[in-house]
Amino acid sequence: MKIRTRFAPSPTGFMHVGNLRTALYEYLTARHDGGTFVLRIEDTDQERFVEGATQVIYDTLKLAGLSHDEGPDVGGDYGPYVQSERLGLYKPYAEQLVKNGKAYRCFCTKERLEKLRSEAPEGTVTGYDRHCRNLSEEEIAKNLADGIPYVIRQKMPEDGVTTYRDLVYGDISFPNADLDDQILLKTDGFPTYNFANVIDDHTMGITHVVRGSEYLSSTPKYNLLYEAFGWEIPTYIHLPLIMGKSTDENGKEIVSKLSKRHGSTGFMDLVAEGYLPEAIINYIALLGWAPDSTKEIFTLKELEEEFDINRISKSPSVFDYDKLTWVNSEHIKAMSFDDFLAHAKPFYDKAGIREDSYALLDELLKPRITRFNEIEEKLAFVREYGDFDLSLFEHKKSKSTLDTSKAMLEPALAIIETADWNREALGAAMTKLAEDNGVKNSVVMWPVRVAAAGVAVTPGGCSEVLLLLGRDESVRRIKAALKRL
Ligand code: GLU
Question: How far is the CA of 5 from the centre of ligand 1 (A)?
Answer without folding.
Answer: 13
